[in-house]
Amino acid sequence: MAGDCCIAFHSALNLKFEDVTGKDADYGAIVPMNVKTIQQTENSLQTLAKARTGISGLDEVTFGGLPAGRPTLICGGAGCGKTLLAATFLVNGAVMFDEPGVFMSFEESSADLIRNVASLGYDLAALVEQKRIAMDFVRVERSEIEESGEYDLEGLFVRLGYAIKSIGAKRVVLDTLEVLFAGLGDTQILRSELRRLFAWLKDRNVSAIVTAEQGTGALTRFGLEEYVSDCVLFLDNRVDSQITTRRLRVVKYRGSVHGTNEYPFLIDTHGISVLPVTSAGLAHSASDVVISTGVHGLNQMLGVGGFYRGTSVLVTGTAGTGKTSLAAHFVDSVCARGERCLYFAFEEAPAQITRNMRSIGLDLQPRIDSGLLKFEAARPSLFGLEMHLARMYREIEEFAPAAVVLDPISALRGETGDVHSMLLRIIDLLKKQGITAFLTNLLAPQGMDHADAGVSSLMDAWISLVQLESNGERNRGIYVLKSRGMNHSNQIREYQLTSQGVKLVDAYLGSAGVLTGSARITQEAADAASVMRRVQETERRRREIQRKRDSLERQISELRASLESEEEEARKALEYDEELERRMRAERQAMAVLRGGLAP
Questions:
Q1: What does the alpha-carbon distance between residue 513 and residue 49 come to, in Å, rounded to a whole number?
Q2: How many helices (H) and strands (E) does the chain have?
Q3: Nearest to residue 504, comparing CAs of 450, 461, 463, 555?
Q4: Which site among 63, 132, 178, 442 is 20 to 30 Å from 518 CA-CA?
Q5: What are phi and psi of 405, to 5 degrees?
Q6: Res. 412 pLDDT band, cuts 50 70 90
Q7: CA 577, CA 571: separation in Å to the nearest integer?
């Protein structure tokens, strides 16, 4: 609906407007408000119905949504997002929950409103055409207002009642309240009419949002609206260190528990999302599934052969130690398993990262093209910490990754406590959803500071990359500072960035400690020569022993041959003697026969 509204402050509020067809419309008398019974009130308190907003995070903060059938006040300064949040509540109600709605504006025309919310991806014109949303612009000219008696909203009720009935609306938005009461100076009348307006909305059983501007020293300009509202949301557009952050706070919520903190919220092309503050509970599950680090040597250093799924991993090191390269190996291993990975880059553009990784044999572009790898790059100074966190929440919810990389967290700017709180909240979210977190952190050349130690205490595994300087050269070393739930190597391993990726070199200990680079190569050559000398000496001794063995065996052979020769001669002499003895006996016997005449 469209038209103008001229308000005169006397016995009645006279409204002259046209319907969507351009014809004068008579909507009849206002239906008197029904009085609720005490029993109905008690029942409503016991089981308070809620209208879901469909806004990510807001339904969590309000434990289910805004009060159904009751008015909610949204107040805040200029540019904090009151109108957009109200429009989102209306659009989501029509699209997600099949609850038509009425948007009555006192400042923006329907055409302007349609154009403004289009930036969130909302097509209000189509919803109006489908009769899922009704829009009405009521023009109130303060110069035409004359306060001359009792104030009456009957004409507004008639107009709003018709709009509600025309589409069977379940939701109503009034934007903004100050314009409607701009010419009213009597506080008592104002409070009475506010109560009457909110009671009228309750009687129609519509879930209403009423927007109001922030006042001086009060939530609203009149300082009364928050007292007669059942639910009050305060929006704030705060500038801190030249960075703007929007925040939301539930000031009150009658009949329902609700979050009491300030919650950052994000308005972008995807709509509105509110970031709930992480609870203090530690109820996330722990997986026994082991996933690869992407580097074979690092897998060997970890007792179970990799990281546990859903854990948080921190890689620290000074500039040039290869933190991003190690992250790229991890990303590639995640995508190689057919899982999604979300990469938040705070210092390099995605194209630069993919180009640089080709130098170590990793081509991430096919991973991006397949949809398994998604880069989200933004300078830390572009948003405040809360906005970065809200943006991460949104992307994680939409992309549903198995692993998330933050490179590097040291780029985030803010107070140490704020950065720690932000990281705690994002890590808590990832643990709750079983997502493996891989964080890199740039250390100062002097080494670890208190902020790094504070962040590392949140991590399940901490990998340290160091520069090892010796013999006029710098080499890279890696060691595992901690890895919860597993045994791990306590050695510092040298690693190299080669054209085939990150390669770990076996730890080499010299008299002065771990040797790397040319010192390691020199020592390896010296040790190899020493080994060769020992091998040669051993071989020489073996040959000498063999020579002696051969000589001894020759002597034994000669002695054996001499013995055999002597044995042969003795045998032959014995045979000769035996033959001679036989012949002598024969001759004596023959001679005895001849002499005695004995028969032979």
A1: 70
A2: 17, 24
A3: 463
A4: 442
A5: -115, 130
A6: confident
A7: 10
0.85 exceeded by pTM: no
Strands 461-470 and 473-483: antiparallel
Written as six digits, the tokens of 560 are: 């054996």
**Cα–Cα distance for residue pair 142/24, rounded to 1 Å:** 24
Q: Which of the two residues, 181 and 573, has the higher pLDDT score?
A: 573
Helix (H) or strand (E) holding 180: helix 177-180
In the numeric block, the tokens 């022993």 are attached to: 545
Q: Give the integer Cα–Cα distance in Å for 72 and 65.
A: 11
Residue 215 pLDDT grade (very low, low, confident, very high; cuts 50, 70, 90): low
pLDDT of 170 strictly over 90:
yes
Q: Say which residues have a Cβ less than 8 Å from residue 532's Cβ, sequence separation at least 6.
A: none
Residue 252, Cβ density class (10 Å: 0-12 exposed, 13-18 middle, ≥19 buried):
middle
Strand 171-175 relative to strand 262-268: parallel, antiparallel, unpaired? unpaired
Closest Cα to residue 311, out of 540, 486, 99, 547? 486
DSSP string over 307-370? EETT-EEEEEE-TTS-HHHHHHHHHHHHHHTT--EEEEESSS-HHHHHHHHHTTT---HHHHHT
The encoded tokens of residue 264 equal: 């950052």
For the beta carbon of residue 251, count every other beta carbon within 10 angstroms: 15
Residue given tokens 């100076």 in the structure block:
185
For residue 325, the model assigns a pLDDT of 94
Place of tokens 């398994």: 372
